[in-house]
Amino acid sequence: MADDLILDVQDVKKSYNGLEVLKGIGFSLRKGETKVLIGPSGSGKSTLLRCINHLTHPDAGKITLKGEEVVDSNIDAMRARIGFVFQDFNLFSHLTVLDNVRICQVKVNGIDPATATTRSHQELERVGLADKAEAYPAELSGGQQQRVSIARALAMDPDVLLFDEPTSALDPELTGEVVRVMQQLASEGMTMVVVTHEMSFARQAADEIIFMEHGYIVEQGSPDALFSGATNERTRAFLNVIAEHG
Length: 246
Ligand SMILES: Nc1ncnc2c1ncn2[C@@H]1O[C@H](COP(=O)(O)OP(=O)(O)O)[C@@H](O)[C@H]1O
Ligand SMILES: [Mg+2]
Known about the structure:
By secondary structure, this protein is α/β, with parallel strands linked by helices. The protein has one domain (5-245): 3-Layer(aba) Sandwich (Rossmann fold). Helices cover 39% and strands 25% of the residues. It contains 9 helices and 10 strands. It has helices spanning 45-52, 75-81, 97-107, 113-126, 142-155, 172-187, 199-205, 223-229, 233-245; strands at 5-16, 19-30, 34-38, 60-65, 68-69, 82-85, 160-164, 192-195, 208-213, 216-221. The strands form 2 sheets. The protein has a 6-stranded mixed beta sheet, sandwiched between helices. A 4-stranded antiparallel beta sheet has the order 2-1-4-5, with helices on one face. A hairpin with a 2-residue loop joins strand 1 and strand 2. The N and C termini lie far apart (39 Å). The model has no long low-confidence stretch (mean pLDDT 95). The structure holds adenosine-5'-diphosphate and magnesium ion. Magnesium ion is lined by residues 45-46, 164-165.
């Protein structure tokens, strides 16, 4: 195994009520790589991300983080190392922005409170929200709330960050500020898997784009290869639809 292999997903399967929504998915991620996962609604993208840290329990397959298999007995520790950014932010509404970013560092990672506070301010600065530390989530725009949730994930020092359609709950004018933060992270060498329909992000930041449909990986390749001529007809059709409506 190469030393810089961070995440390895092998042959993951998942069924709901007899319907197989992941039919044997595999991909891997080296340190600093960004992979963008695309595909029609219902193709299994969220289920795949959620299987990586067992928010959804996979039926079969193997997930390995830095050489260590993700299993039930180590799942809490693994989740602390796998950052997750959700479509709907998932912030604690009764906590300030600062406390949202602090709380898991202290409660999960056992960081001392003063160090966690310093780190939280640094991560808020990194996402452009240094002046919002004492605000509550409801006082922020959706784009700002999503940037708080990214700061919260970063503060945990994750080995990998998973994003599930981080901009799809946002008004179009707020998408850019979140995409810019993700682009910055990608260029700084963060290791990430991003489910998104933001093709400008995919073009600029992805080392590889993975196209999923009906629980399979249909095609994968560099942005240049996919945008200049996907070999698969379904991939081409999907990219055309995104280009028209995205
Ligand atoms: N908790 C669940 N129970 C039953 N079916 C589910 C559940 N979550 C997802 N599904 C089904 O699995 C399929 C894939 O869903 P999902 O992973 O959310 O796709 P995507 O994120 O690509 O839109 C869909 O048919 C969806 O209805
Ligand atoms: Mg989804």
